[in-house]
Amino acid sequence: RVLDACAAPGGKAAHLLERDPALRLLALDVDARRLQRIRETFDRTGVGASAQVRAADAADLDAWWDGEPFDAVLLDAPCSATGVVRRQPDVLLHRRPGDIDALVALQARLLDALWQVVAPGGVLLYATCSILRRENQQQIAAFLARTADARVDGLPEAFGHGDAGTRQRLPGEQGGDGFFHARLVKGR
After folding, report:
1. Which one, 15, 34, 42, 117, has the greatest CB density within 10 A?
2. SAM-dependent MTase RsmB/NOP-type domain: from which residue to which, for each copy (predicted)?
């Protein structure tokens, strides 16, 4: 059972379903209007017939969680999008003072809430398209400091460079956008 917690527009969920059509997947997004984009992605790729798609704040467990733990959670967290600046330079023009503080707080709220739905031995993959340490390495370090049953499970070097098991790719590396991810495993 897999949760894609911030699923719109649905590309990552569709890829998971392409790899395993029998996957029990729940795709959530806080914006009900964006659910249509997830469904369109599923229709375009021919997957998702068995997936559940729901509008909910992933951090508000009472609003959507049935109490059954997930083996894996994908949290592609809302972020500053500084990793896509090569393709979308206007990202930097739209940032205001306080945006990063608000995003870091939201990311922490999502991490803390979603950790509760991960089964013992399960995995939470935290990802952003940010290159800011506050949203990435520092966010994961703070999460690990306050979460006794969490550990980082290292990812292969092919997924970027990094420290403490996390991986960062900068804009232009490997011909892509800037991207960060950490694979967190819940103790049994």
Report:
1. 117
2. 1-187
Residue type, 181: H
Q: Is 79 a catalytic site residue? A: no
**Which CATH number goes with the domain that contains 96?**
3.40.50.150
Of residues 129, 132, 140, 150, which has the active-site annotation? 129
Q: What is the pLDDT of residues 138-157, one digit of tens each?
A: 999 999 999 999 999 988 77
Range(s) of the domain holding residue 168: 2-186
Q: How many domains does the chain have?
A: 1
Q: Is 162 annotated as a binding residue?
A: no
Q: Is 63 annotated as a binding residue?
A: no
Please check whether residue 97 is in contact with residue 162, taking contact to mean a CB–CB distance below 8 angstroms: no
Q: Is the pLDDT of residue 106 over 90?
A: yes
